[in-house]
Amino acid sequence: MPQVQNDNRFEHLLDHHHLKKTGPRLRVLSMMSSKNTATSQPDLENLMHDVDRVTLYRILNVFEEKGIIHKVFDLNGTANYAICHSNCEEHNHQDEHLHFNCTVCNNVYCLNDLNLPSINLPAGFKAENFTLYASGLCPKCSKKENKK
Predict the structure, then answer these.
(1) What are phi and psi for residue 79, nearest 5 degrees?
(2) Quick check: pTM over 0.90?
(3) Does residue 102 have a known ligand-binding role?
(4) Domain extent at residue 89
(5) How many domains does the chain have?
(6) CATH number of the domain residue 121 falls in
(7) What is the number of alpha carbons within 13 Å of residue 65 lying toward its C-beta?
(8) How far apart are CA 88 and CA 98, in angstroms?
(9) Does a structural domain hold residue 2?
(10) Is 88 labelled a binding residue?
(11) What GO terms describe the biological role, i.e. biological process, of this protein (predicted)?
(12) Are 96 and 116 in contact (CB under 8 A)?
């Protein structure tokens, strides 16, 4: 099991969203923040053997509702979760960035630093959220591919 730190920023984040600071919640945040890719519930289940599936589902659900994490789907349709930027609010996600799906390792990356084009919707349309996907090879898989 990976090393997990109980970080004060996670306690502050839970306080900010009026959530109890439970061990499983703090561990989920720590595990998710330690990765540079989005994480699926099955991946978290494999790391957190002492937390049952229903509890983990509820943690992910409340974190998404509160704007702590956002959901992104991989190429297989599996929901993955990543920590939101600090400007997300309850029921109002601001994580409008490119999500990159690697076609080899199946990891999902949030590419937050890219400038996205503005989208002008036709009259009468109102976007409530926005998701942009790209797929291909991540740097690690691309490097392996080039060595062949």
Answers:
(1) -70, 130
(2) no
(3) yes
(4) 8-147
(5) 1
(6) 1.10.10.10
(7) 9
(8) 16
(9) no
(10) no
(11) negative regulation of DNA-templated transcription; regulation of secondary metabolite biosynthetic process
(12) yes
